[in-house]
Amino acid sequence: MSTALTGPAKQIGEQLYLGSNIYFNKLNKNGGINGAHVELIVADDGYEPKRAVSNTRHFIYRDKVDALFGAMGTPTSFAVLPILEQLQIPYLMPYSGAKFLHYQPTINVFNIRASYDDEADEQIKYLVEENNHTRIGFLIQADEFGLVVESGLRESLAKHNLKPVKVARYQRNSNEIMSALEILKASGATAICLVGTYKPLSEFINSAHEQQFMPDYTSISFASSNDLFARLKYSSKLMATEVVPNPNKCDAYWCTEFLKDMAAAQINTPNRLHFEGYINAMVFSAAAQRCPQPLQHDCLMQRLNIIFSEDKQVNALFVNKTDKNKHIIYRSVF
């Protein structure tokens, strides 16, 4: 697992890892997978592509891992594509909804997350259909992540014969948003779609409020709504799209199991990121248990790709009942 354990996005990586590790520890205490214990090796990439490539090569060539699991981010995933295309090692549950991972992928990938296009559709529906906005601006992280989400947002706006009134960008792993704030404030936008991580986005919203600029906002799930909301100083209207339910307000079987396991691990404030990491580990384990040892890539991917039809309790969390090709999108509101 290559993820951010340092830097301004570290809380995302830390919480995903913790959720996965709690499930795997429980599994190993109960005999593991067909007698084999799961070892989750984690390395810090700081949400930087070059470090993700180095970690991935180390995992494959030195650690001889069976799979790459829970990798964090679109720019990091994009950077390791050449390795994955060459070796076809399973790339499981990446923390990204990028198109190249979801639509006709060239790698051996398995996604639990909804696509960013699904999230974009929900955000534009909220802003345009439910709140009657027509002057919508974008604040975009300037990298592959920003570009793929921006593309989905533009496509969703186009369905309503709209375009963004202004697009402002900021550098990944920085909080330098003041020039972007000036641009969007001058644009006359009444709503802004935010694409980034929790620190720069909260800095933008707080600074905008202090300048008497208070549009409505939407945010992509990658930002980590729990960490984003916690950093807001003022009352704001912000809707974040989510790809897993709030486990604290969910009575589904896996929500209940998750809360029990988090309490046993003395985690007092379990959140969606913990839950996503936990679910990732559970789904991997459920598929791997249906394969003989030693674990083979073909069997693992085959079992993963039918897991939603095999497990109704997993299916209920993610699959849209009215459209089996789309995931459920949840919302959280500040």
Number of helices: 14
What distance lies between the first and last C-alpha atoms, to the nearest angstrom? 31 Å
Q: What is the mean predicted local confidence, pLDDT?
A: 95
Q: Could you estimate the helical fraction of the residues in percent?
A: 40-55%
General form: globular
Q: Major sheet, described briefly?
A: 6 strands, mixed
The run of helices and strands is: EHEHEHEHEHEHEHEHEHEHHHHHE
Radius of gyration (CA) equals 20 Å
What is the tally of beta strands? Answer: 11
Family: Belongs to the leucine-binding protein family.
Pfam families: Peripla_BP_6
InterPro entries: Leu-bd (IPR028081), Peripla_BP_I (IPR028082)
Keywords: Signal
Describe the structure.
With 334 residues, the protein is of the alpha/beta class. Helices cover 47% and strands 12% of the residues. The protein has helices spanning 10-29, 49-61, 74-87, 99-102, 116-130, 144-158, 178-187, 198-210, 225-230, 253-264, 272-288, 297-304, 307-310, 312-318; strands at 2-3, 43-44, 68-69, 91-92, 109-110, 136-141, 166-170, 191-195, 216-219, 238-242, 330-333. The mean pLDDT is 95.
